[in-house]
Amino acid sequence: MGFEKLAPGQIPDGSLPDAEMKIAAETWFRGLRDRICADFERLEDQLTGTRHAALPAGRFERKGWERSNADGTPGGGGTMSIMRGRVFEKVGVNISTTFGTFSEEFRKQIPGAAETGAFWASGISLVAHMRSPLVPAVHMNTRMIVTGKRWFGGGGDLNPMFPLEEDTAAFHAAYKAACDKADPTYYERFKAWCDEYFYIPHRGEARGVGGIFFDYLNTGDFEADFAFTRDVGEAFRKAYVPLVEKHLNEDWTEEQREHQLFKRGRYAEFNLIYDRGTVFGLKTGGNTEAILMSLPPEAKWP
């Protein structure tokens, strides 16, 4: 595609990237979706020892959607990949590429959009809610956004019902390796950003045990930033799949399930009240079903 031939700093901050950059990013997100879906379907096949083992192994179902701009012109779209299985009670691995013009109100909140409101955005978003309360729920996304500026963002965070120190350490280690490969300052910065972002103020508690979160990443070197974003996506696979394998065949109690449902309520509260991705999707006319796929299939409140 040619993006790998770009010299560091060739595309300065503030300029629109060319079509090859956009194609490279969109293609990467699609390929990552395919690899993750294959990983998760293999995990569905590995269940042998718990109460849901008699159910058929889950498989992803894909559904495309299209977006129109306010003036009726095409505005991109995406594909939802949803699986409701015996290990994954509900998991969505969605990709999208959208483009158009922000509303007068919303463009003021987005870097580089104030003048014309024009935007292009592509990314992958994943949320997994598990049948077993002993297998952590998880969230991951990576994205590229273009306005009058251009940047990458994303990350991943682990949401266990019953945190285990060794699982938390392993999850963070995978992301630290990806960060250290790009810049030795990234991990501590992006870990702190994750802890700050995934916090539920009205509850006074963290949503989970963290991970990394980054946004507005544009060092002036497209390939370096894109390489880091790719490493973050692969780090998710290295971090999460072994945790599911470790716990999926462990037995669990109804009391543990009740605790899981209450924790899911906290997850829903954060995503509906505070999550910027939810706001971005709704404000840009995205597909509501795809945007709200992050919500758990079942939850409880006291």
Structural class: alpha+beta
Major sheet strand order? 1-2-3-4-5-6-9
Beta percentage is: 25-35%
Shape estimate: globular
The name of the CATH architecture is 3-Layer(aba) Sandwich
* Rg value: 19 Å
Largest sheet: 7 strands, antiparallel
Within CATH, the superfamily carries the name Coproporphyrinogen III oxidase, aerobic
State mean pLDDT (0 to 100 scale): 91
Highest CATH level, the class: Alpha Beta
Task: Please bin the fraction of helical residues.
Answer: 25-40%
- Count up the helices: 8
The string of secondary-structure elements, in order, is HEEEHEEEHHEEEHHHH
* Termini separation: 53 Å
Low-confidence stretches: 1-17
CATH topology: oxygen-dependent coproporphyrinogen oxidase
Number of strands: 9
Describe the structure.
- This protein is of the alpha+beta class.
- It has one domain (8-294): Coproporphyrinogen III oxidase, aerobic (oxygen-dependent coproporphyrinogen oxidase), CATH 3.40.1500.10.
- The chain contains eight helices and nine strands.
- The strands form two sheets. It has a seven-stranded antiparallel sheet with strand order 1-2-3-4-5-6-9. The protein has a two-stranded antiparallel ribbon with strand order 7-8.
- The N and C termini lie far apart (53 Å).
- Residues 1-17 have low confidence and may be disordered.
